[in-house]
Design goal:
Two copies of one chain form a homodimer. With 484 residues, chain A is of the alpha/beta class. Chain A contains 17 helices and 15 strands. Chain A has two domains: 168 residues, Aspartate Aminotransferase, domain 1; 236 residues, 3-Layer(aba) Sandwich (Aspartate Aminotransferase, domain 2), CATH 3.40.640.10. In chain A, 43% of the residues lie in helices and 13% in strands. In chain A, helix 3 runs antiparallel to helix 13, helix 6 runs parallel beside helix 13 and helix 16 packs across helix 17. At the A-B interface, helix 1, helix 3, helix 4, helix 7 and helix 8 of A face helix 1, helix 3, helix 4, helix 7 and helix 8 of B. Chains A, B: Its cofactor is pyridoxal 5'-phosphate. Chains A, B: InterPro entries: ALAT1/2-like (IPR045088), Aminotransferase_I/II_large (IPR004839), PyrdxlP-dep_Trfase (IPR015424), PyrdxlP-dep_Trfase_major (IPR015421), PyrdxlP-dep_Trfase_small (IPR015422). Chains A, B: Transfer of C3 units between the cytosol of mesophyll and bundle sheath cells to maintain a nitrogen-carbon balance in the C4-dicarboxylic pathway.
C-alpha cells in the first residue's frame, strides 16, 4: 500500500463528503480572505470593511454581552474573588449572591470538574424552573440535557433516530442547514416540506401530510418532524392554531417532534407571541405518553447572543426509560458540556427579577437590544421591498430576512456560465462589490426556480444605513447589467 | 402507525445501541445512586462517603485550579474589569496583561462571538508556539483545530476515516473506551493490539504487525493506529526507540497515526520523558508527505485538570489540502468550540515564564500537584502489590493504575451466577462495601481470562490512606470468602 493512500479525499466517509454547510461555506471563506486582504493591502478593494450579514453572531458585530451574566461567569471562574472586599465595589450584589448560589450547587464548588453528563443538577433545576414559569406547565430537571449550544443536541437526536438511508426526517424548506448537514452526516433522508412564502412562510399541514405520504410510499420510515420556531432563515413566528395542528399531526403519525426554539426571545411583531411546543401539547391535554418531544434552546440567540460560550439545552419528554438511557449514554461518551456554558444556560432561563439590584440595568440592556433588532429588521425589510425585483416578508422573529430576488434571465445565464447557482452568483457579486456577506438561498433550500438570500439583522444600528446604501447601489448596477 | 412506536428502543440506531462507555457506565450510575442515598439516609451504608476513583476528574476531588489560568479567564469573561482601578489589587499584573493580549487577538474583543471554526487565530498562534518550544520543531496555527476537549477531535477523525464496518482502527487493549465507543458509533471495526503487561504495558511492533495482517486477511481496510501515550488506563510512558518504530510502522503501512497525548504533562518516572509523535517523526526526517499524524491534547489533564472547561486541540499534519477542507467542514458544522476552553488551551501551552509576576506561584502550584500525584501513584501501587493475588505495574505517567487481580475460581463462578464479568462483580462488591468507585478492566479490554480494575490516583493525598485501608480490608474479606 502506498503511504498516505488511506487518506486520499475520495477515501473519506462519503457521508462527510456529501454534507454541506452553507453558513460557513464558500462565500464565508471568500469573505475571510477578502478581510485579510483589507488588512494586508488597504485600499485594494472597492470597500473598506467586510459587513458580515451571513451568520447569527451578534457579539462579533459589536453587540455587548449582558453585564449581569458576565459578572456571574467571572465570579464562578475565579471564586477566590468572592472572599475579597474589593469585589463588592466591582460586582453587583445580586451577581455575587447568584455566583455563590451557583457554586453551592456544584459539588466541591468545582467549576473545573466534569459534571453529570446531563449537566449540573442545580443548574438543570434552575432551567426547569425557568421553563415552568415560561409555560405554566411543570418541567423536570431529569428531562434537561445541557449541551454545548443547540447543535450537539440536534446531532445527538439524529444519531439516535437515523439507522440508515431509509430513515427520514421531515424538515422545512427553507431550513437552517445544521439539519441537512446532520442528516447527511448520519446517513438519513431529508424529507422536505415547503414553507409558503406567499402566506409569510406559513406551515401548511396539508403539505406536511402530502410529503409524509409521498416519502412513505417510497419506503422511507419517517421518524421525526423538525420545526424551527421562530423560523430560520425565514423569521416567521407560528400562530398558536398552527402549532396545535402540528402537535396533533405528530401524535397521529407517531413522529418525534424536534422543536428548534432557540429564537424564543426574538419576537418583533406586536401581534405575535412565542409558545413552546411543550406548552401547546400540555394545554391540549397531551402528556408524556402522547408525544415524544424535544425542545432545543441556546444561549447563542435571544437578546443574550452568547454564541462563543457554547451553552444550551434540550428538554426531552415523551420517551421511554430505555430510550432515555440511550440518550444519556451518548451524552456521556462526551462526558459533559462546558461548565461556563452550563452556567449561562441557567442564567438566561433565570435572569434577574424585579427587586434584584441588577434588574433595572439588566432590563434596560435587554430592551435596548431587542428594540434595536426590531428597528433594524424593519429598516432592512423596507429597503429590500423598495428594490426592483425583490420581495421580502416581515421578520416577525429570529435574526434574519430571507428576501426573494427575481433574477433576470440574463443573470441566471451568467451564473450558469460561471458554474454557480444564480443566487450564489448574486451573493458573490454583492460581496465583491460591497463587502456585504449574505448566504444564498440555495444553502437553505427553496422552491425550485426561486432565488433568495439570507441577510441577518445584526449589524449595529449605526451601520444599517451603510448596508442599505451599498446594497441598493449594488443591486441597481447588477440589474442594469443583467436586465432582460 | 401506533403513536410513539417510532421511538421504541429497538428502533434506535443499532450503532448507538452497540456502543458502550464503561467510565460512565453501570458502576458509575450505581455510585451516583449510593451518593444520593448517603445524603437522604445518612448512616444507611457501611461508609460515609463515595470515593470516586473511576474517572480522571481531579477538581471534583478537591484539586484546586491554577490561579493564573483562572485570573485570565475571569478577566476575559468580564473585560470591563480591565478598566477598573480595584482590579490591580485583585489580579496579578501578568494575568491582566495576558488578558489584554488575548482580547486584542479576538476580533472586537468579543469573547461571546462564534470564532473561526478552527478556533481564534491568535490563540492557535500561541498553541503553535507552545508546541514549537516543546518539540524543537516548527508548528503552524493552520494545523491546529481547537476543540471542546479531546473527545470531539477523536470523533471528528473517526467520522472522517470510517466509511463502513470494513474500515478498521488499530487500538491498544486495554484502551480508553472513548475509542471503542467512537468506533462503534461510526460503525467501524476496532482492530485490537495487546499491550504487554509483563513488560510494563509494552507496545510490541510484532504484535501490531500481526494484528494488522490478521485484520487485512479478513478484508478489513485498516486506516489508522491509535496510540495513547502516556497510557490510559495503563499509565506507561513509551520509550523513544519504541516511538521511532511506531512511526516507521505507520509510514510503511500507510496508516494515519492518531496520537492521544493528553497526559503529556503527567510523567512521574524519573527515567521517562514525554516525546510527542510529531517530534519523533520530524527528528527521523519525516515531513508532511511521509505521515498523516494527529496529536490530541486537552486542558482536562496535566497539572491543570480543567475537565469542566472542555478545552483542547488537535494538531493535524500530513493531510492533503482537500482532506483538510473536509476536516474544516465537519468542524464548521458545529460552528466553533467554546471560547473559555479555547483561551485555556492557549494558556496551558503558554503558561507564565521566568520573570513574570505569577511565575513563582504558578510554578509552586504546578509542582505541588505533580509531586503529590507521583506520591499518590507510588503509595497506591505499593499498596496494591502487597495484597494477595494483585500485581500492579508502575504508573510512569497519566492518572491511573491498572492492577491485575487474580480472582479465585470461586469468585469467577459467583460472578457468573450474578451475570457479571468477574472484575465487574469485584468492582461492584468493592463499591458496596467501601464506597470506592473503580472501573472494571472489562470496560477497557484485557487479555481474555485476566481481570483488572482501573483506579485513578486522584483522591486528595490526605484521603489516600483511607482508600488503602478500606481497599485492603475489603480485599481480605473478599479473598477469605472466595479463596479456592
Amino acid at each position: 500500500m502506498a503511504p498516505a493512500a488511506s487518506v486520499a479525499v475520495e477515501n473519506l466517509n462519503p457521508k462527510v463528503l456529501k454534507c454541506e454547510y452553507a453558513v460557513r461555506g464558500e462565500i464565508a471563506i471568500h469573505a475571510q480572505r477578502l478581510q485579510q486582504q483589507l488588512q494586508t493591502q488597504p485600499g485594494s478593494l472597492p470597500f473598506d470593511q467586510i459587513l458580515f450579514c451571513n451568520i447569527g453572531n451578534p457579539q462579533s458585530l459589536g453587540q455587548q454581552p449582558v453585564t449581569f451574566f458576565r459578572e456571574v461567569l467571572a465570579l464562578c471562574d475565579h471564586p477566590c474573588l468572592l472572599e475579597k472586599e474589593e469585589t463588592k465595589s466591582l460586582f453587583s450584589a445580586d451577581a455575587i449572591s447568584r455566583a455563590k448560589q451557583i457554586l453551592a450547587t456544584i459539588p466541591g464548588r468545582a467549576t473545573g470538574a466534569y459534571s453529570h453528563s446531563q449537566g449540573i443538577e442545580g443548574l438543570r433545576d434552575a432551567i426547569a424552573a425557568g421553563i415552568t414559569s415560561r409555560d405554566g406547565f411543570p418541567a423536570n430537571a431529569d428531562d434537561i440535557f445541557i449541551t454545548d449550544g443547540a447543535s450537539p443536541g440536534v446531532h445527538m437526536m439524529m444519531q439516535l433516530l437515523i439507522r440508515n438511508e431509509k430513515d427520514g426526517i421531515l424538515c422545512p424548506i427553507p431550513q437552517y442547514p445544521l439539519y441537512s448537514a446532520s442528516i447527511a452526516l448520519h446517513g438519513g433522508a431529508l424529507v422536505p416540506y415547503y414553507l409558503d412564502e406567499k402566506t409569510g412562510w406559513g406551515l401548511e399541514i396539508s403539505d406536511l401530510k402530502k410529503q409524509l405520504e409521498d416519502a412513505r410510499s417510497k419506503g422511507i420510515d419517517v421518524r421525526a418532524l423538525v420545526v424551527i420556531n421562530p423560523g430560520n432563515p425565514t423569521g416567521q413566528v407560528l400562530a398558536e392554531d398552527n402549532q396545535y395542528d402540528i402537535v396533533k399531526f405528530c401524535k397521529n403519525e407517531g413522529l418525534v417532534l424536534l422543536a428548534d426554539e432557540v429564537y424564543q426571545e426574538n419576537i418583533y411583531a406586536d401581534n405575535k407571541k412565542f409558545n413552546s411546543f411543550k406548552k401547546i401539547a400540555r394545554s391540549m391535554g397531551y402528556g408524556e405518553d402522547d408525544l415524544p418531544l424535544v425542545s432545543f434552546q441556546s444561549v447563542s440567540k435571544g437578546y443574550y447572543g452568547e454564541c462563543g460560550k457554547r451553552g444550551g439545552y434540550m428538554e426531552i419528554t415523551g420517551f421511554s426509560a430505555p430510550v432515555r438511557e440511550q440518550i444519556y449514554k451518548v451524552a456521556s461518551v462526551n462526558l459533559c458540556s462546558n461548565i461556563t456554558g452550563q452556567i449561562l444556560a441557567s442564567l438566561v432561563m433565570n435572569p434577574p427579577k424585579v427587586g434584584d439590584e441588577s434588574y433595572a440595568s439588566y432590563k434596560a440592556e435587554k430592551d435596548a437590544i431587542l428594540q434595536s433588532l426590531a428597528r433594524r429588521a424593519k429598516a432592512l425589510e423596507d429597503a429590500f421591498n423598495k428594490l426592483e425585483g425583490i420581495s421580502c416578508n416581515k421578520a416577525e422573529g429570529a435574526m434574519y430576512l430571507f428576501p426573494q430576488i427575481h433574477l433576470p434571465q440574463k443573470a441566471i445565464e451568467a451564473a450558469k456560465a460561471a458554474k454557480k447557482a444564480p443566487d450564489a452568483f448574486y451573493a458573490l457579486r454583492l460581496l465583491e462589490s460591497t463587502g456585504i456577506v449574505v448566504v444564498s438561498g440555495s444553502g437553505f433550500g427553496q422552491v425550485p426556480g426561486t432565488w433568495h438570500i439570507r441577510c441577518t439583522i445584526l449589524p449595529q444600528e449605526d451601520k444599517i444605513p451603510a448596508v442599505i446604501t451599498r446594497f441598493k447601489a449594488f443591486h441597481e448596477v447588477f440589474m442594469a447589467e443583467y436586465r432582460d
